[in-house]
Write a structure and sequence with these properties.
- Keywords: Membrane, Transmembrane, Transmembrane helix.
- This protein is mainly alpha-helical.
- The protein has 2 domains: about 1-60, no CATH class; about 75-285, no CATH class.
- About 70% of the residues lie in helices and about 0% in strands.
- It contains 14 helices and no strands.
- The protein is elongated.
- The protein starts with 12 loop residues before the first helix and ends with a helix.
- About 25% of the residues are buried.
Length: about 290
Amino acid sequence: MSHSQSPWPFERPERLADLLREQGASPDECADLLPVLHRLPEWQAPQPEPADTRRLLARLTTELPTLSPVRQAIRAHQQRRHANFSLLLATARAQVSLFGLGFWLVSALVTLVGSVVVLSKILSDQEMVLRASGPLLAYLGTLVAFRGRGARVLELELVCSPSPLQLVMARLVIVLGYDVALGLALGLVLWAGGAEHVLALTLSWLMPLLLVVGLALLLSLRLPVQAAAAVAYGNWLAILTICSTTNLQTLLLTPELSVLPGCIGVALLAIALLRLHADMHHLLPRP
């Protein structure tokens, strides 16, 4: 190998001397080492024979553990965490701070207004009021919980320890848990206020809420979150408007079918969660 083809820093002897001084070599040591180092590019490293490689691997194998204790500990820890429902609750607890005080207060205010309207009997169709105001909580919760795409932080969420599916489920636990709690509180307020058919009124609040959440989450796999939530809630309001102005109300909004929107919503949630991982690339911002 010629000197002109040797790699840096051998092409620059003054740089090589500087490197030796940086390593603590004295001037005398530099004078002794420089001639040797200048000849290193001329040295041809011997090529190992296959037998040499096998002997080296056999020697190294005896020094390595058959199973990595670190990998075993990590695998056992992950299995315990995935098998434990506390992982989901711990992730949800860590996500609570993302919602902000406004979400909690506005949701509670919507519930309070709905209960006041029903108890005061300002409107004759009390169930229609709850069917319209309950899904509003789903609309607000979807906007707040899944705003990562619009905020351009989805890439950061993907590198977190919880998977995208775990993050979505944790946020659904927060949104639906809070909304269900508000629905139960609404039922207690209506019962204490002497309202009739408290169970039917509570279902009129909760079941459409589940439907809007499920539809919004499913649509968010293809649409921006704001558009998906608006389409889901807007379609539900359109259905209520059509039913209230036609005879369909007696068919579609009967007490016997009060749980149907909730069942459809749960089915849509399951479909959205199953497709979330496969469709994750659609959620990433385009360059």
